[in-house]
Amino acid sequence: MLRLVMLPPQSDLTRSWAERLRMDVPSLDVQVAESVEDVAASIATADAAYGTLSPAHLASAGLLRWLQAPAAAPDAGYFSEELIAHPVTVTNLRGIYNDHVATHAVALVLALARGIHRTILDQRSHVWSPYREPDASIYLPEATVLVIGLGGIGNEIARLMNAFGCRVVATDARVSEPPPYVVEVANPDELDRLLPDADIVVLTVPHTPETEGLFDAERFGMMKPSAVLVNIGRGMTVRLDALVDALESGTIAGAGLDVFEIEPLPEDHPLWDAPNVVLTPHVAVEGPYTDERRYGVLLENARRFVSGEPLINVVDKEHWF
């Protein structure tokens, strides 16, 4: 019988998933490792695992053939050199958050486009200030939106922004043919060509060796002074110090952020009080059915694994996604 180990840390949710897997895939022996010691005792005989596996434990995982990552884009360090070199196939949870994250991204865009972030400040101060300068808003039917990363989430963002009348362009490492609502899809190395024309820049890319620090002082300097940046991908793609400088100097007009280079964002960080920023605490993925969708990917891959079928959501380990 094939064996799958649920790696720590555990919660009532992951323990319930283990129980469900035992019933849904009875030919799979599911073990729950509550501690590091439990992992050491079980990983040597495991054929599969769910969660995060340290290099030390990976060295003992001679039978391991499938590792299900617990996120669509696991945190930095997940894809260690040892994991990349190991023959194990890694799968992730991509595709299950497209609607939630895309809606969140568009909410941040709309808040910035209509100046809602400024209105909230007035609300907190009990100030009635109905007048806005004409250029304080972004007129969406005349705006160009640059979506960096046209995977499932980026594709949905592009579709929604097109519905507002925006001209949508994108960059992507794997997509070459644009969907009907995207004017152009370029290679990532063409970003600098597209950036100066964008009114709204939306980052959806994962943290990889190629995307770390993608937006720094040089890239902010290429943007329009009236442009805004929205990041719902990974925080390590944007250098926060460079972003603060760009916002304070007027190099760009605003930013909407759900992810940050440092998380949690330190309570004394200047972004908290920046008048041209909308912040949310890494919650874009949350919404109805999220946990059930996570289990659904685990279950589908477990069924495929025991029957010898190709797994879904396979990761290019060297590139981390």
Write up what this structure looks like:
By secondary structure, the chain is an alpha/beta fold. It folds into two domains: 2-95 and 289-319, 3-Layer(aba) Sandwich (Rossmann fold); 98-279, NAD(P)-binding Rossmann-like Domain (Rossmann fold, 3-Layer(aba) Sandwich), CATH 3.40.50. 32% of the residues lie in helices and 15% in strands. It contains eleven helices and twelve strands. The protein has helices at 12-24, 36-42, 55-58, 81-85, 98-113, 116-124, 152-163, 191-194, 217-222, 240-249, 290-307, and strands spanning 2-6, 28-32, 48-50, 66-68, 89-91, 144-148, 167-171, 184-186, 200-203, 228-231, 254-257, 277-279. A seven-stranded parallel sheet has the order 8-7-6-9-10-11-12, covered by helices on one side. The chain has a five-stranded parallel sheet with strand order 2-1-3-4-5, with helices on both faces. Helix 1 (12-24) packs parallel to helix 11 and helix 5 crosses helix 7 (152-163). The longest helix has 18 residues, at 290-307. The radius of gyration is 22 Å and the shape is elongated. The chain starts with a strand and ends in a 14-residue tail after the last helix. The model has no long low-confidence stretch (mean pLDDT 96).
